[in-house]
Amino acid sequence: MHRLRMSIRARIMLLSMGFSALIALGVCLASLSSARRSAMRATAQSVEYGRTAARPCSP
Question: Relative to the CA of 38, which of 7, 9, 20, 27 has its CA 20 to 30 Å away?
């Protein structure tokens, strides 16, 4: 009986650790996605600025 109880505790701990790992992975992926989007936006703005700066000013 005591052995079964330890097995259930071990299963609960493993499930808890697995769930925590999934949450951490989700947060990491969201952070990477946000950083990538931010970098792409900065690159697009830089390219657009380069295009407008290269145009001659018309009076």
Answer: 20
